[in-house]
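Priority: medium. Attachment 1 of 2:
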């Protein structure tokens, strides 16, 4: 399919839908799926992934920013949207105008939402965010009943759920995650004893979905799992998840270099033998980190070939000496499968000293997205 640029992201929407259904089947019968589509759906495409997830049975989606929620509403998405990020009081009007649920852990912000809702003659919807040990957003668990009681005294708002987030659910040792789970359950009991427990609770991220069934509660919040990425080593086969994203480009130039000639900026690589270099038109401005410089491989004609020299802003070089048939126009796979070889997000994260989330979410919007599914083909 013509993209207007010889570098692109391919997204398999059928894989997204498969993953939603697999997650749903792993939870109890009354547990829903809230698809996490923040950061342009981890680089996969905000609107398209939201729609695919909802078609597969997710009851709603979660973003990090109210601007992401607005983009979904503008695209016609009518399902519930929860913004996971901490809101500013000044954003209250926009949340309410777009019927978006906020994550609240502060009375003054809740009051601003109440006032904005009254001005718009609407009801502000929110979830109480409880900090059980993440040390980030939300009210301390022991302070949650008092805060919730004050929030519920405000007009024109409703608190639909209470939530928390795990710090180490993907770690080999689950002790701390289980301490957080215990703290959350104790908080829920205190709220219930006070007669103010919201109707729903949620806590499970991707790792907790697989490892902590006791925190599935009323719905789960898959991020990496939604995209077919295992949230910890060894999780690859638990649900039969299907990776949804590939990163590809086409060779735009091939040239011969002599032994000892340099490749790219800073003399970072010199040819150890006479050979051939191919130019791949994608660089760090597209989200392919400079830490890949002289580090790692791509797939060409079903074989692994090495990256040579520094990753440039808009291109990088690979050595194709051992692929004599390589030519301009050949497809190069940076992330994904070609023939019998696969490069995973985990592989790239390992060699660039980061996490899969960053590998995916930094893929630039200037890269065209091609969407495929088993029913419609490419578009």
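Attachment 2 of 2:
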């Amino acid at each position: 399919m013509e993209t207007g640029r010889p570098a692109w992201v391919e997204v398999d929407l059928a894989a997204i839908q498969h993953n939603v259904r697999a997650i749903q089947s792993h939870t109890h019968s009354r547990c829903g799926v809230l698809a996490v589509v923040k950061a342009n759906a981890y680089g996969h495409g905000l609107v398209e992934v939201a729609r695919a997830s909802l078609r597969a049975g997710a009851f709603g989606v979660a973003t990090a920013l109210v601007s992401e929620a607005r983009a979904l509403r503008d695209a016609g998405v009518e399902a519930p949207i929860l913004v996971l990020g901490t809101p500013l009081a000044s954003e209250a009007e926009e949340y309410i105008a777009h019927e978006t649920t906020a994550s609240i852990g502060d009375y003054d912000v809740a009051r601003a939402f109440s006032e904005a809702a009254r001005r718009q003659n609407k009801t502000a919807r929110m979830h109480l965010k409880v900090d059980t040990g993440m040390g980030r957003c939300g009210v301390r668990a022991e302070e949650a009943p008092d805060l919730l009681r004050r929030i519920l005294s405000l007009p024109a708002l409703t608190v639909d759920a209470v939530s928390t987030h795990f710090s180490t659910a993907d770690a080999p040792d689950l002790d701390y995650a289980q301490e957080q789970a215990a703290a959350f359950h104790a908080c829920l009991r205190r709220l219930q004893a006070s007669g103010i427990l919201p109707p729903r609770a949620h806590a499970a991220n991707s790792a907790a979905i697989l490892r902590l069934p006791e925190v599935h509660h009323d719905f789960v919040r898959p991020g990496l799992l939604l995209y077919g990425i295992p949230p910890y080593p060894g999780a690859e086969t638990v649900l039969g998840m299907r990776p949804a994203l590939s990163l590809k480009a086409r060779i735009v130039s091939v040239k011969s270099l002599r032994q000892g000639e340099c490749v790219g900026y800073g003399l970072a690589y010199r040819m150890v033998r006479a050979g051939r270099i191919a130019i791949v038109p994608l660089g760090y401005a597209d989200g392919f980190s400079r830490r890949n410089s002289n580090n790692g491989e791509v797939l060409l004609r079903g074989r692994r070939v090495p990256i040579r020299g520094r990753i440039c802003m808009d291109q990088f070089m690979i050595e194709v000496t051992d692929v004599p048939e390589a030519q301009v126009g050949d497809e190069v796979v940076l992330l994904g499968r070609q023939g019998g070889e696969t490069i995973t997000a985990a592989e790239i994260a390992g060699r660039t000293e980061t996490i899969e989330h960053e590998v995916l979410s930094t893929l630039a919007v200037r890269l065209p997205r091609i969407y495929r599914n088993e029913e419609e083909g490419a578009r």
